[in-house]
Design a protein that fits this description.
Helix content: 40-55%
Radius of gyration: 27 Å
Order of helices and strands: HHHEHEEHEEEEHHHHHHHH
Low-confidence stretches: none
Number of strands: 7
Largest sheet: 5 strands, mixed
Structural class: alpha/beta
Strand order of the largest sheet: 1-2-3-4-7
Strand content: 5-15%
């Protein structure tokens, strides 16, 4: 999975925390009770066509009581700052502003690595006036000090600790603080497992560092290892159970279809569809009715 997709998932799973961290200068004024909604990509692709960039994440912030006009946050993640184009971002924001009929647009760019040489503004004009002055909120993770966020109660900040600036000797501590944040701030088992993988990807501990983590944080390491193993096993067992159940149900459907065909002749496409989509109890009921029914309709009533 690409870095862009990882961060897109992070933003979509935790939109409030993402705005509070990546767009702190604007998010601080949003207040409580706002609703954050991802803008539907299908709509954007249909209206913006090829100019739509799938890995951008537009979030619409709305005030349910209507006291303020909605604000569109456009978040873009760049793993390689050399790929970033401020012209492209400005073009995209203008397209979205026109599409959604708003001037309240906040561009946010998340740089995963060094971005010191990237343009931060775009000014178009002549000798007398500037006719376009475009800027964006910039969050360069590699320039943020780990120490400033090591105990943050913002889950997105904690999950991205391994991408921040810290001495190489403290890498295991950074990993531990990210995992602690995940366990303290996220209770959903599926999300815990998903973002444990996220932390692993960006921390990229080698075998020596992983061993040091297990030695320095034995209780936490054992707890997370047992959790991940148990959850994956439960997922596999559930998948096997569901697969077996589905197989049995499909077998029952085929047997029922054969019995009906033998007694009532060739079946219509509609009848076959009904059988294919029937649940286990319905299939059992229909099978019992075959014995006494004189017409197909009596079986499927």
């Amino acid at each position: 999975m690409s870095h862009d997709q990882n961060f897109k998932n992070l933003i979509l799973d935790y939109p409030h925390a993402a705005l509070a961290f990546f767009a702190a200068a604007e998010a601080a004024d949003l207040g409580a009770g706002v609703r954050v909604l991802p803008v539907r990509q299908e709509q954007l692709q249909e209206r913006l066509g090829e100019r739509f960039r799938e890995l951008d994440v537009p979030l619409l912030v709305e005030w349910p009581d209507g006291r303020r006009e909605a604000v569109l946050f456009v978040l873009e993640e760049e793993s390689d700052a050399r790929r970033f184009s401020i012209h492209r971002l400005a073009h995209y924001c203008l397209d979205l502003a026109e599409l959604l009929q708003t001037t309240r647009v906040v561009p946010v760019v998340i740089f995963l690595r060094d971005a010191r040489h990237v343009a931060e503004s775009l000014r178009l004009g002549g000798d007398r006036h500037v006719y376009l002055d475009f800027q964006y909120l910039r969050c360069a993770l590699a320039e943020l000090a780990f120490e400033d966020y090591r105990d943050s109660d913002n889950l997105v900040a904690r999950l991205t600790l391994p991408s921040m600036r810290y001495p190489a000797a403290r890498k295991v501590e950074v990993y531990a603080q990210a995992v602690r944040g995940l366990t303290a701030l996220e209770s959903d088992p599926e999300r815990r497992l998903k973002y444990l993988d996220f932390i692993d990807i960006y921390a990229a501990l080698d075998d020596h560092e992983r061993l040091k983590y297990e030695q320095d944080y034995p209780d936490e390491a054992q707890t997370m290892s047992q959790f991940a193993e148990r959850f994956r096993e439960e997922g596999m067992q559930q998948g096997m159970r569901e697969g077996m159940q589905q197989g049995l149900q499909e077998g029952e459907a085929r047997v029922l279809e054969r019995q009906l065909r033998l007694k009532f002749g060739e079946l219509s496409d509609e009848v076959r569809r009904r059988i294919a989509h029937a649940d286990e109890q319905t299939l059992l009921t229909w099978s019992e009715r075959i014995l006494s029914a004189d017409r197909l309709e009596e079986v499927l009533r």
